[in-house]
Write a structure and sequence with these properties.
This protein is α/β, with parallel strands linked by helices. The chain contains 21 helices and 45 strands.
Length: 930
């Protein structure tokens, strides 16, 4: 036969083999019933789950074709053997991909013991549980299994096997952590930090599902007192039955330990200032006992009824106190128990609750000169306001503290006297909380206090850099610089830099002079306009150290030069680093002040005469700065220049003119008001800023505008016996300020929307229902919940309230720590123009005084009975019954996939070996052919 004929015959054979395999696959695989791939052997059932995988065998003709075309120089016998091995590999791979399984039935049982080890379970109860678990282990059959899951706040799997035997761990090993441990402070550790401080049976059962091995009937025995603080054991018992787990329960029946706890503290829903009301506490005692009970109002004992000695009967007892609130606002009550006998847990001996008492509007008045704050404070008090007068250093440090106030007044306060971050708090108070804010002037107000370009300037309706009057320079300043020998080096260079920094702060029309002195004064830079900066800087750089120190001649030269020029503000800055004669200096400075020339002193180094320099500043109406480090000089000079250059105080008698109408001015005749004696010059910002009162020069005295949800007002005169000394005697003084505050104060109670709250473990769920005016569900709200812990300085937490149903909005928030919590929900809606419209506010209060684990110690046998009924088990089961299959069998499948894969891998490796080793002698083969 020719080679061509052999090739044609080989190809026809491959086609025939392929067709035969396809027909066989269609008939014996695709068209075959499912039972064709199931068979029984030795009582075991085998099945191919995915027989379609036999399609892999259709690749056999391809293997034959490839082998025939192989370039390997192997005898035909070895090629035939390779074909057989590859066919075997394909066949084993096809069987593996067909997912062979072996099904068996068994009545073996795995029982998981679910043991409660929370703090409410006594050591005696755990010892009883150990004995019960030992009986369960003894009752198991040889092929049964027992596993142990313990739980409190979280579950864990506890190994039972030790040295090949099942051994019940000791009570100490069963516990998850130290039991008890002292009362948690408000804002203290969370429940998650105390492993035994809560009970979650549901989580323990969910862990037990993953403990059961395949091929076993599932049983679970719950050993617990039935008291749960988290989760829902009844719903989980129903789920367990759906998973094939039969749940039984074995309650702890030991009597509760010697325990006394405060269960609740009840306050009336509404209390008026001065009204006597009852505070009721519910106290639980596991047995007859005696205790001392203290009730605190805030940080002090309750005034009317603070301490009680009570005899407690077993069960719940009610203790009632009388109380009265003298001032409106938030009042926190705390009840403290002191048991006279044994008490296992101290964590549950205290309880806090907060009462919001509506009272007179509360005004915060921060005055830069607190000794002179009585004038406005008394006037507002007579207008039925409660006024909290503070120094600027005592300004609230958090928005939660500032939120207490209906109106805030900041008066005559320099910028550096206010706490860091207070400006941002004021801005948030006005914009976000709708508060009212009044900034009052004085010797340290507005530009006089360095408030230019600050957050408060941005908040107020006026600019502090008012346009200067053109008829004269704004500032004439003399810098009197010590150039004695001790100034050599860094001090002199920093003094020059300070002079240059002063130049950059002043305006071009201002006047400046630099006088240097040692034993004699020298006008280094003659008095001239600041616009000649280049020339002035060159003269400053020529300053060199000298010798000696004489202050009086240098100050006298500055006095003589400044007294003959016209300027709105004349100021001298004296810089010296050493000692000098003091004779005549104080009298000279007093004479300078009498002619409107103020003097500030700067002491450089550690050995300065602070008494002299402070006396110069006091007598000269300026400020004293101590600079131990020369590097601080430029900053001090810049700050001093800013204060002086921004000083726009107008100190002259003038009448107040009303420019715009305002509701708070109704009933007041400003035409009869006395004259004011001064104000700080400012400039009104563009609308919506509104000018209410102005001076006879047309400059703002009182201006206001809306900022966010609140009002910001600027009063450029003062509110005490300085510029407003005559106003204090005006009969309308108190009414003027009372009506102004009342119109612009924070409106706390807009539309109130009912809010329901529910505490679940360490979380609170708050919900509100929204309705339109025609009683339909309103689905257009945007709501946020603010949670604040009373007595804690941390910022309140804000969370959005999600819409979960028509008209229903809900938020779920974790309570961090223990104590009393105030909840406020703000509801808004977006209008067509994109702005937010306020719809109302919701208020609520919840208490999380201590872990709920310590609230009840009576075993809840009824709950466990219902859980066993729902789980298909029994209450107090016999140990043997936990391993009784009751005719049940479980059929489980064992995958055989891996066995065939390993066999296929072995055949594949064998094929590789045969292709690398010559099994037949090629000469013998050739001889036989011959």
């Amino acid at each position: 036969m020719t080679p061509r004929a052999r090739r044609l015959g080989f190809g026809a054979g491959l086609v025939a083999l392929t067709a035969l395999l396809v027909l066989a696959y269609q008939r014996f695989v695709l068209a075959a019933p499912a039972e064709a791939f199931t068979w029984t052997r030795d009582g075991r059932r085998f099945e191919l789950v995915t027989p379609e995988a036999f399609a892999v065998l259709l690749c056999l003709p391809l293997l034959v074709f490839v082998l025939a075309r192989s370039l390997a120089d192997l005898p035909w016998q070895q090629r035939a053997l390779a074909l057989v091995l590859r066919f075997g590999f394909l066949a084993l791979l096809a069987v593996a991909l067909a997912s062979p399984v072996r099904s068996e039935s068994t009545s073996r049982i795995c029982t998981v013991l679910v043991l409660d080890v929370s703090d409410s379970v006594t050591d005696d109860s755990l010892e009883d549980a150990r004995k019960d678990m030992a009986r369960v282990i003894a009752a198991k059959r040889s092929d049964d299994l027992v596993r142990l899951v313990t739980f409190a706040a979280r579950p864990r799997l506890v190994p039972l096997e030790k040295a090949g035997e099942l051994v019940v761990p000791s009570v100490r090993e069963l516990r998850h952590g130290a039991r008890g441990g002292g009362a948690p402070a408000p804002g203290g550790p969370s429940q998650a930090d105390k492993p035994g401080a809560s009970t979650d049976i549901q989580a323990a059962l969910q862990l037990a599902y993953g403990v059961f091995p395949p091929g076993y009937l599932k049983r679970a025995l719950l050993l617990s007192d039935g008291v749960e603080t988290d989760g829902d054991v009844l719903s989980e018992a129903n789920r367990a039955r759906g998973f094939g787990v039969r749940l039984s329960a074995l309650p702890f029946r030991r009597p509760p330990p010697a325990e006394i706890s405060v269960v609740s503290l009840s306050l009336p829903d509404k209390v008026d200032v001065g009204q006597t009301f009852a505070v009721r506490a519910e106290v639980y005692s596991s047995r007859a006992a005696a205790a001392r009970v203290r009730l605190y109002q805030g940080e002090a004992l309750n005034g009317l009824d603070g301490v009680r000695e009570v005899a407690l009967a077993p069960g719940k007892n009610e203790v009632e106190f009388k109380s009265v609130v003298r001032l409106g606002g938030e009042v926190t009550y705390a009840l403290e128990l002191e048991p006279h006998g044994e008490d296992v847990f101290r964590e549950n001996n205290s309880y806090r609750a907060t009462l919001d008492v509506p009272g007179r509007p509360l005004v915060l008045y921060a005055e830069g000169q607190p000794a002179r704050a009585s004038y406005l404070a008394n006037a507002l008090g007579a207008q039925q306001f409660d006024v909290d007068v503070r120094a600027p250093s005592a300004f609230p440090g958090s928005l939660g503290e500032l939120e207490r106030f209906d109106f805030v007044i900041l008066s005559d306060t320099p910028r550096e006297a206010l706490n860091p971050g207070a400006q941002e708090l004021i801005e948030r108070y006005v914009r976000d909380l709708g508060g009212g804010f009044l900034f009052a002037g004085g010797a340290s107000g507005y530009g006089l206090g360095g408030w230019g370009h600050s957050t408060l300037e941005r908040l107020l309706p006026v600019r502090m850099d008012a346009e200067r009057r053109k008829e004269m320079p704004g500032v004439a300043m003399a810098l009197v610089i010590d150039r004695s020998g001790s100034m050599t080096g860094a001090p002199m260079e920093m003094a020059k830099a300070a002079c240059v920094a002063t130049l950059s702060t002043l305006q071009g029309d201002d006047l400046i002079e630099v006088i240097t002195f040692d034993a004699e004064p020298l006008a280094q830079v003659k008095l001239q306009p600041v616009r000649y900066r280049g020339r002035i800087q060159n003269e400053i750089q020529r300053i060199t150290p000298g010798g000696g120190t004489e202050i009086f001649p240098a100050l006298d030269m500055a006095y003589q030069h400044l007294s003959v020029v016209q300027a709105r503000k004349k100021h001298v800055v004296l810089l010296t680093d050493g000692q000098a004669a003091t004779q005549g200096i104080r009298e000279l400075v007093q004479a300078m002040l009498a002619e409107g020339i103020t003097v500030t002193s700067v002491g450089l180094g550690e050995g300065v005469n602070s008494e002299l320099l402070r006396g110069i500043a006091d007598a000269g109406g300026g400020r004293f700065h101590h600079a131990p480090d020369p590097n601080a000089l430029p900053k001090i000079f810049t700050r001093e220049t800013e204060i002086v250059s921004q000083q726009a105080a107008v100190e002259e008698w003038f009448p107040v003119e009303q420019v715009s109408s305002a509701d708070f001015l109704k009933g007041l005749s400003l035409a009869s008001a006395p004259l004011l004696h001064g104000y700080v010059s400012t400039e009104l910002k563009p609308p919506p800023a509104q000018l209410i009162l102005q001076s006879d020069r047309g400059e703002p005295i009182l201006a206001r505008w809306r900022t966010g949800l609140g009002w910001a007002l600027a009063w450029t005169s003062d509110v005490k016996n300085g510029w407003a000394v005559e106003w204090l005697r005006w009969p309308g003084f108190g009414r003027f300020w009372g009506q102004l505050v009342r119109e612009h104060m924070r409106v706390k109670r807009r539309r109130e929307v009912d809010m329901t709250t529910r505490v679940e473990g360490s979380r609170v769920r708050a919900s509100v229902d929204a309705f339109t005016a025609d009683e339909r569900f309103d689905n257009t709200w945007t709501s946020k919940l603010v949670v604040r812990q009373v007595g804690k300085k941390a910022e309140p937490r804000e969370v959005p309230m999600r819409q979960i149903a028509p008209g229903r909005y809900e938020a779920d928030v974790g309570l961090e720590g223990y104590g009393s919590f105030l909840l406020r929900a703000e509801h808004t809606r977006q209008k067509a123009d994109g702005t937010q419209e306020s719809l109302g506010t919701s208020f609520a209060h919840v208490s999380n005084p201590y872990p709920r684990e310590y609230a009840s110690f009576e075993p809840d046998v009824d709950r466990l009975r219902r859980a066993a009924l729902a789980g298909g088990g029994a209450l107090d089961p016999e140990p043997k019954s936990l391993f009784d299959p009751r005719g049940e069998e479980i059929v489980y499948q064992e995958d055989l996939f891996s066995r065939f894969v390993l066999a296929a891998l072995g055949v594949f490796l064998l094929d590789l070996l045969f292709r690398r080793v010559r099994l037949f002698d090629r000469k013998v083969v050739a001889r036989r052919r011959a």
